[in-house]
Design a protein that fits this description.
The chain is an alpha/beta fold. It has helices spanning about 10-20, 25-30, 40-60, 80-85, 100-110, 145-160, 180-185, 190-195, 205-215; strands at about 70-75, 90-95, 115-120, 135-140, 160-175, 220-225, 235-240. It has a 7-stranded mixed beta sheet with strand order 3-2-1-4-5-7-6, with helices on both faces. Helix 1 packs across helix 5.
């Protein structure tokens, strides 16, 4: 199946395929000191295990206990969070990405039999069986997509999760009201994009995300403040539960 340019995916795929070729681990987890191949696979994957442990701890605080069956890591990149989900005991982890070069790196550095990395070229996520996942998780991914495309993916998450399963996703809200955020607002969009090596940033106000989740028939369990988008953006981690059967 080809990439439909009308969705905005074509440009996203082109950017992340290039970044996956140039410096895949840094592109997934940007750190000035790690640019130019500074991440080792062990260090990189360890951050994913820590993030997933934190996520599962937060779910437990909310009284949520996803079955450790199939987890989907959307926008898996070089496999950081897929590895973390496998380490946490999920028996099957489907890592989805639009970039062949990112998936190549994930298959190279992730040695976990539970992980199955798949190329996802369309916003319907039809490479994953409907109602098959116990947990869908994505972080630092939707923020790099045009808003309507990101929302299409969120709708797709609720098609691939089981009734009563959990969908957890991070999304920026708006540029931060601090010096860094004000500086960002002042930059022309093309310049801001060049400074981020082609990575776009987009946000949706929390009210818009709540409406989207309600449209999908899901329950919002939490909208936690989050720092994944960096100091220039406000961001939330949304913890949701799909409608029961």
């Amino acid at each position: 199946m080809g990439i439909d340019p009308s969705t905005g995916i074509e440009e996203v795929s082109r950017t992340w395929t290039r970044l996956g070729r140039e410096d895949p681990m840094w592109a997934v987890l940007t750190d000035r000191e790690k640019a130019g191949g500074g991440w080792t696979p062990a260090e990189f994957l360890a951050t994913g295990a820590t993030e997933i442990a934190t996520l599962l701890g937060r779910l437990a605080e909310l009284g949520a206990d996803p079955v450790r069956g199939r987890a989907v890591d959307f926008g898996c990149g070089a496999g950081r969070l897929s590895h973390g989900l496998a380490t946490a005991g999920f028996t099957e982890v489907v890592g989805l990405d639009i970039s062949p070069t990112m998936l190549e790196k994930a298959r190279e550095i992730v040695d976990a039999p539970a992980c199955d990395f798949r190329l996802a070229t369309g916003p319907e996520l039809d490479v994953v069986e409907p109602a098959s996942a116990d947990l869908v998780y994505t972080c630092r991914v939707l923020q790099h997509m045009p808003t309507e495309l990101a929302h299409r993916y969120v709708r797709a998450f609720y098609r691939i999760v089981r009734p009563g399963g959990y969908v957890v996703f991070q999304m920026p809200t708006a540029p931060a009201r601090n010096a860094a955020g004000l500086a960002l607002r002042a930059l022309p969009a093309p310049l801001a994009r060049r400074l981020r090596r082609g990575m776009e940033m987009h946000g949706t106000p929390e009210a818009g995300v709540r409406a989207l989740v309600a449209e999908c028939g899901a329950e919002m369990l939490a909208a936690d403040e989050d720092t994944s988008a960096g100091p220039r953006w406000g961001s939330r981690l949304y913890v949701t539960r799909a409608a029961p059967a």
